[in-house]
Predict the structure.
Amino acid sequence: MSDNIATIADNLARVNERVANATTAAGRDPASVRLVGVTKYVGPVEAAALLSVGCPLLGESRPQQLWDKAAEASLAEARWHMIGHLQRNKVRRTLPIVDLIHSVDSLRLANSIDSIAEELGLRKQILLEVNCSGDLEKHGLTADGLKELLPQLAELSHIEVTGLMTMAAREGGASAAAENFAALRQLRDSVASECPPNVNLTELSMGMSHDFETAILEGATIVRVGSLLFDGVCR
Ligand SMILES: *Cc1c(COP(=O)(O)O)cnc(C)c1O
């Protein structure tokens, strides 16, 4: 396990350095990009190791795994991000745990989060997930779907929309990813004037292990990195 901690610390240092270099190369403020360490491939021990070496924001894509890890004493200091698909029947248990939900892609889900947040006395930050790649197996709103949804969020006073999230196309490599990320930024810019007061699309959550530098060049403010951080870790 001590070997694993050293490996994870090393991996984190390398990712942080690459994030900093990409941010500088893009001419952006180093503080303008946050790293979410995605712990879905590992158990609580390795996740706690990542937290302990200096990665406070952790992401999970499945509610059950999020709930399980969030209940661990060793992970009490983590700030959790829900990055995967969220079903409405999982909202109640998820809301108290998370700082940010990246993956809201329907009015039904937004309504459900809003009403349960109200019941629980919370105001929740969310991102709207957009499918910029056209991959059919991916979740997310279309550009038109986003434009239609924005005004409908105005009455939801227990959510605060802070940005957009996307995943790059599976096929097409770095150039396709760059196009998808640029499309998300342009979409954000084009709808900014149509946003109700509880919607402020500052955050762009985009970029994973194989494409986070591309995403930063295209304006990412949150990158979600998993595999690279746990590279070489024995379980
Ligand atoms: C798994 C996952 C990631 C991290 O992917 P890596 O390629 O392992 O860095 C990021 N975002 C989402 C939504 C994921 O499900």
The mean pLDDT is 96. Residues 38, 40, 61, 83-84, 167, 208-210, 224-227 surround pyridoxal-5'-phosphate (CB under 6 Å).
